[in-house]
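Weekly structure sync, notes
Attendees: PL (lead), two postdocs, one rotation student
Agenda item 3: pending single-chain targets
PL asked that the sequence for the first pending target be pasted directly into the notes so everyone works from the same version. It is reproduced below exactly as submitted, 231 residues in total.
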Amino acid sequence: MRSVQAIFVKQAKDMTKNFAVLSMFVIFPLVAFAMTHFVARGNYDISDTMFTTMMASVFAGMALIQVACSVIAEDREKKSIRFLIIAGVKPLAYLMGIGGVILIASLISSLAFAYIGGFAQDEFIAFMLVMMSGAIASVILGATIGIYAKNRQAASGLSMPFAVVLGFAPLVAQFNERVESFVGFIYTQQINVVVNDFSAGLAQPLTVIWLNIAVLAVLFVIAYVKKGLGG
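Predicted structure, written out during the meeting:
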């Protein structure tokens, strides 16, 4: 537990100095706010929550992958992971320390989305559950990709294809039934299903998301053990 706390404090300090990472947690809610108040409100052809749910889905499924990947790649670049493994820090302890900081920031952004969307109580609970579950999945995936990136520049190139596919595939699925059936097992699609229709129910979406999390956690452990000591 001490190792988790130490990594958490270290990452919190590092993140406050990284404007590029911090901006990811601000830009998406700001865009949602601007588009909601200046485009959606007063336009009867557009739902008041359309841009909020759209930007929230992209944030959880795209931005957080890149954030986590960049953070882990920075540790790879500075050789921090090598020292942590030598010190006996386990993969999940490392992930909890790093991921904890990102998830707290994600929680704040998700609350901002919920405020902008003006969701009712039941809708708010459903929204926060799927957003934070999706955030966990994206952080683990981004961290796994980051293990394979030797520096932050490489991290950007490695994470972008995953981020684009997972972030935008659910948007395409709204207009294409074949794509919708293909991406149904992906956690970002389940986020999109719930935030666009709160009456859809939570049981199946959360089950799919947490199955994704379990698989991704195993992949992260494998990557950490296999590549963590690499140069």
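Discussion points:
- Residues 2-227 form one domain.
- The chain has a mean pLDDT of 87.
Action: rotation student to compare against the earlier draft before next sync.
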